[in-house]
Design goal:
Layout (H helix, E strand, L loop, with lengths): L1 H15 L4 E10 L8 E4 L5 E3 L6 H10 L7 E6 L14 E9 L6 H11 L3 E6 H4 L6 E4 L6 E2 L4 H17 L4 E4 L8 E6 L4 E5 L5 H10 L3 E6 L14 E4 L5 H4 L6 E5 L4 H14 L3 E4 L3 H13 L12 E2 L11 H17 L4
Parallel strand pairs: 11-12, 11-14, 12-13, 14-15, 15-16
Antiparallel strand pairs: 1-2, 1-5, 2-3, 4-5, 6-7, 6-10, 7-8, 9-10
Helix pairs in contact: 1-3, 6-10, 8-9
Length: 351
């Protein structure tokens, strides 16, 4: 959520033509509070949004931004283990490189990147760090299906970046950032952001309310789908897009994809079967099901009879009971366990 706020703040300033600055971690050696891709936005008045440390580097970056020329980037290096410099006792002894750049005016690769990320569209940006250390901004923005914006200096390097970016967009579930490997002629930092992830909750039940709230708080777009008008209301789910959809219309009205994390909690067989059928056919990366073991096996049997599932096949995306095991009992604790499990799957630490 914090990173989305940074993107939106930088985009708003860029559209207004303000002289804000963006500070992005481009390399980390050793321990650090944040990793590559974490960024802060520094407003013209010196105000800071975002986190790149436990609270000390932000002011350092803000100070450096005040004297930064319009189109002259810098790569700032902070050795957080050196108490003689910071003296904050950070507890994360590492070396952090931060790319600091002014928001350039006009139609620029950075501007296009910010726009697409804010819209939830897949996008990737590359920056020549070897040039940035010399005070030169050489960057590129790749958006699938659209012309390239900017250049990394030569066409072969541009093509290599497009291949790299598309491969990462095809594979990653969360934004990834770091140096491009295998390049001898350039030092390129790549920031790859896939399509916006969403949590789709089937069932506008009372226990879905804390789940919708927590999912939104970690930056997921939230949809709540239910055919019952007295439950599917924005008043009950202020952080979500609420969809009142009849069961017969699930397949045509609800679109799921590779960034959809589905939780089925309608607590009624017909509704849950319709949601499971849609989720399995869409091959979503996560399906969390709140159900007893007996009811789950009965529903899976129906899905196999209907040809939605192979007989006896593995179901790696199905998590039932949904949520990491933390001994959860209350609706809030169950919501916490489900959100944690979704995070685990997105980060690649879970199945």
């Amino acid at each position: 959520m914090m990173q989305q706020q940074v993107i939106r703040a930088a985009l708003a300033a860029w559209r207004r033509g303000e002289a804000g600055a963006l500070g992005t971690i481009v390399a980390v050696e050793g321990s650090a509070y944040q990793r590559e891709g974490a960024s802060v936005f520094v407003a013209p008045d010196g105000g800071v949004q975002g986190l790149i440390s436990g609270g000390c580097l932000e002011s350092e970056v803000a100070g450096a931004a005040q004297g930064l020329p319009a189109v002259t980037p810098r790569v700032l290096t902070y050795d957080t283990s050196d108490e003689s410099i910071f003296g904050y006792g950070m507890g994360c002894p590492g070396v952090v490189d931060v790319l600091l750049e002014r928001l350039p005016p006009g139609d620029t690769p950075l501007g296009r990147f910010l726009e697409r990320v804010a819209e939830g569209v897949p996008a990737a940006r590359g920056v020549r760090l070897d040039h940035a250390r010399q005070g030169r901004l050489t960057d590129i923005c790749y958006i699938p299906g659209r012309p390239l914006s900017g250049s990394l200096g030569d066409q072969e390097l541009n093509r290599a970046f497009v291949r790299f970016a598309q491969a990462r967009l095809d594979a990653c579930r969360v934004p990834e950032a770091g140096r491009m490997e295998g390049l001898e002629s350039a030092d390129v930092f790549a920031w790859v952001v896939p399509a916006e992830a969403e949590c789709v909750i089937f069932g506008a039940t009372d226990d879905a309310q804390p789940l919708a709230q927590m999912a939104a708080q970690i930056g997921l777009k939230v949809q709540v789908v239910d055919p019952r008008p007295h439950l599917a209301t924005s008043e009950r789910f202020p952080a979500a897009q609420v969809r009142q959809v009849a069961l017969r219309d699930y397949a045509s009205a609800v679109e799921l994809g590779r960034q959809s994390y589905v939780v089925v909690m309608g607590h009624q067989v017909e509704r849950d079967l319709a949601a499971l059928k849609l989720a399995f056919r869409a091959k979503v990366p996560y399906i969390g099901l709140l159900s007893s073991q007996g009811r789950r096996e009965s529903m899976l049997g129906h899905l196999r009879q209907d040809g939605v599932l192979d007989a006896g096949g593995d179901l790696p995306t199905l998590h039932s009971p949904a949520g990491l095991w933390i001994g959860a009992r209350t609706p809030e604790e169950i919501a916490l366990s489900i959100v944690a499990e979704i995070c685990s799957v997105r980060r690649g630490t879970g199945s």
